[in-house]
Amino acid sequence: MQADPCCLAVAGDLATGVTTKAQSQFHRYTLMPTPVVLPCFPGSLNSHNLCPGMPRTRTAPLKALRTQLTLWFGGLLLITLAGVALYVGQIASKEIMHTAGETLSVSTRASAELLATSLSEREREIELLRQTLEYEDDLSNLEARLMVERIQQLKSGYAWIGLTDKHGNIVQATDGMLIGENARERPWFKGAFDGLFIGDLHLAVMLAKLLPELQDNQPMRFIDIAVPIESDNGDVAGVLAAHLHWTWVTDVVKSIQQHDKLLQNAELMIVNAQGAVLYPEQHTGVTGIPQDLKPSITYENLLWPDGRHYLTSVAPVGTATSIDLGWQVVMRQPIESTTQAVAALQIRLLWLGALTFLVIILIAHRIAIRLTRPIEELVRVARIIEREPEHARFPSESGSPELTALTRALESMTSSLLSREQELANLNANLETQVESRTDELRQANQKLELLARTDPLTGLLNRRHFEEALHVHHRQFLQTREPYDILMLDADHFKSINDRFGHQIGDQVLQTLGKLMVQTIRGTDVCARYGGEEFIILVPRRSSSSEGRELAERIRQLVEQTEFMHAGHVTISVGVSQSHKSDASPEAVIARADAALYQAKAQGRNQVVQIPGDTAC
């Protein structure tokens, strides 16, 4: 029996398409393509390429018709939907960005005004309390203390309120904190002699030790307000001072963000007059501010130092207070967060286009089936192979012997390809799992090695090698900029006797506590390390006074002396201080002088800070 030439041609084209699809799935998991040799059928579209000696036969345009219907109807619909999505997206994006920018601007100004008003209220509260206290003859009496404690109880945000005499001695304070201390060197005490004083954000080490720790373990920061208390003859009789919790300020500005859904992705920052970020804490000292940032009545699209574009609004703080601190409220919102609604609309339009495109394909497919009834079942199987080859079920009878042979060949080829594909997929999955496991182990090992190379395992401070690297870098900067620095050499007194009396485990605990006390006392720019044994070393970059290093050493010595060490009791330290010279060619010279000063402190009786006479900074 001779097969119909038209059916044979369509079958040859179908076999080529199915083979190509199966090969494409198989080649995803193999490095080299595997050629498939098909039998040559007279009248096939591919018979001329596969068998050059066979004459090319003209075939019915069944597959071409199906392709044209799919391309025309589906392509036209996709182009229409894409155009609509782009047009709607542009209009919606502009409108959403404008609305978000206006909301951001209004919220920024509201936050700044609320913060300024709150500061002004605290200023008036302290002024009213001052006027009340001026009628008191004795600031140290019980009535004065009850007044300041009543203010703290009635008004939130006050961490500490105190009264000093004209010499700076604290005579009354809330909860009795710091009574008897002298505050004549505090900026708020000095500033109050000239009138109302409002200090910028700062740390208060002594007060922070007396107050309960914050829940998030953040450092306590305060704002000072101080006013003079005048006697009947107009002289300053004392100073009324208050420390405001920084958390009170942040709670004021966060209240606005919590009530506006459009600001959920926005960030609010408080920036001081020098451009440093005061709030939030995770951006302090890390996030940079654009150089062209300035207050405005609207919003701007600015490029920030992190390389991203933000809708940005700035409003000054301080117009409602007597003293302008130079603060600014900055709110920013990523540009991409304002276009999420537009992206969702475009995605819905794309899904609609995809579904419509599938409908058009099905219609074209039905037409092709009607035109190609002799190979209807084979076309159905080929479509199943294209989408879900593992669910393909070949018909037992396909009409002509040629189509039956083609069906059996396609069935065998599909089964073989699926089997090999599954084997390669399993091998790749196992290999990826092993690679991920080895990569994770290597990353953890590298992190541990890096930590061990940088830090001292007992105290967690920098080790000697890493400290010396940092010191050499700073010394090279010193030779270029002539900005001096100090070196502090610290040594635990009678540490050998602690080990002998209590054991090395208690000695290790003493060293760990000393490290923690030093970290609590030094500044953020200082570098502290364990130099060896019970010796520690601190690099102190100097900012203003030539006595900064010695003052820091004295604060550490006093803190250690006042600390009760578990099991070991009281421990003291000796400190040697040295300052960098113009003639120092290397930092080892500065360390040598600090070491000599340390031994002199030991020789003079320990528990003291010594700086060799004549060791002056450049």
From TrEMBL:
This is diguanylate cyclase. It is an enzyme of class 2 (transferase). It holds the Pfam family HAMP. The chain crosses the membrane at residues 69-88, 349-368. Residues 428-455 form a coiled coil. It comes from the Bacteria. Residues 369-422 form the HAMP domain. Gene3D superfamilies: 3.30.70.270, 6.10.340.10, PAS domain. One of its GO terms (cellular component) is membrane. One of its GO terms (molecular function) is diguanylate cyclase activity. SUPFAM superfamilies: Nucleotide cyclase. GO terms for biological process: signal transduction. Residues 483-614 form the GGDEF domain. Its EC number is 2.7.7.65. Keywords: Coiled coil, Membrane, Transmembrane, Transmembrane helix. InterPro entries: Diguanylate_Cyclase, GGDEF_dom, HAMP_dom, Nucleotide_cyclase, Rev_trsase/Diguanyl_cyclase.
